[in-house]
Design brief:
By secondary structure, the chain is an all-beta fold. The chain has no helices and ten strands. Strands 2-10-9-4-5-6 form a six-stranded mixed sheet, with no helix packed on it. The protein has a four-stranded antiparallel sheet with strand order 1-3-8-7, with no helix packed on it.
Length: 114
């Protein structure tokens, strides 16, 4: 059974940084392409980033290079470093095993506010 547990969210001022983590279990993490998606208040799920088993990453164009995904296959963990955060980054962030977020964790709240 796939288990995904996100952590690291919080309240941050515009321009600040956060690092999200996702602990995983129940599948062969090191062979899976993994994803981050987010859901802003009142909106649907939005794809943020993907990282393949080798660590090759792709990102939504809207992020303008501010986010960096990484993974540690030794401990089955996924990360999202978020820099220069903006109000519009406020959302619940999920790690997922598919880029539509159909299989995702419970999420971690990120709030960007002054």
């Amino acid at each position: 059974q796939v288990q995904l547990v996100e952590s690291g969210g919080g309240l941050v001022q515009p321009g600040g940084s956060l690092r999200l983590s996702c602990a995983t279990a129940g599948f062969l993490f090191r062979t899976w392409r993994m994803h981050w998606v987010r859901q802003a208040p009142g909106k649907g799920l939005e794809w943020v980033s993907s990282i393949d088993a080798r660590g090759v990453t792709t990102y939504a164009d809207s992020l303008e290079g501010r986010f960096t995904a990484s993974r540690d296959n030794a401990i089955n963990a996924l990360y999202l470093q978020m820099n220069n955060l903006k109000h519009e980054d406020t959302a619940v962030y999920f790690c997922a095993t598919d880029d539509r977020g159909q299989t995702r964790g419970q999420g971690t709240q990120v709030t960007v506010a002054s």
